[in-house]
């Protein structure tokens, strides 16, 4: 499968997830790790 890494498909999907499950609640569950990826769970 070919994937164009210049698109922001993953960023848009994570933004939608944050809007649904993360923005209105504490603690935040979706965390961005720079240059790596995203983490899901309570941040320590």
Outline the structure in words.
By secondary structure, this protein is of the alpha+beta class. It has one domain (9-40). It has one helix spanning 9-21; strands at residues 30-33, 37-40. Strand 1 and strand 2 form a beta hairpin. It is globular, with a radius of gyration of 12 Å. The N and C termini lie far apart (35 Å). The model has no long low-confidence stretch (mean pLDDT 84).
Q: What features would you highlight for this structure?
A:
single chain; alpha+beta; two-stranded antiparallel ribbon
Q: Give the end-to-end Cα distance, rounded to a whole number of Å.
A: 35 Å
Shape descriptor reads globular
Number of strands: 2
Class inferred from helices and paired strands: alpha+beta
Strand content: 15-25%
**Roughly how much helix do the residues carry, as a percent range?**
25-40%
Into how many domains do the coordinates divide? 1
């Amino acid at each position: 499968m070919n994937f164009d890494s210049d698109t922001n498909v993953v960023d848009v999907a994570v933004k939608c997830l944050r809007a649904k499950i993360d923005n209105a609640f504490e603690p935040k569950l979706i965390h961005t790790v720079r240059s790596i990826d995203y983490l899901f769970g309570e941040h320590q």
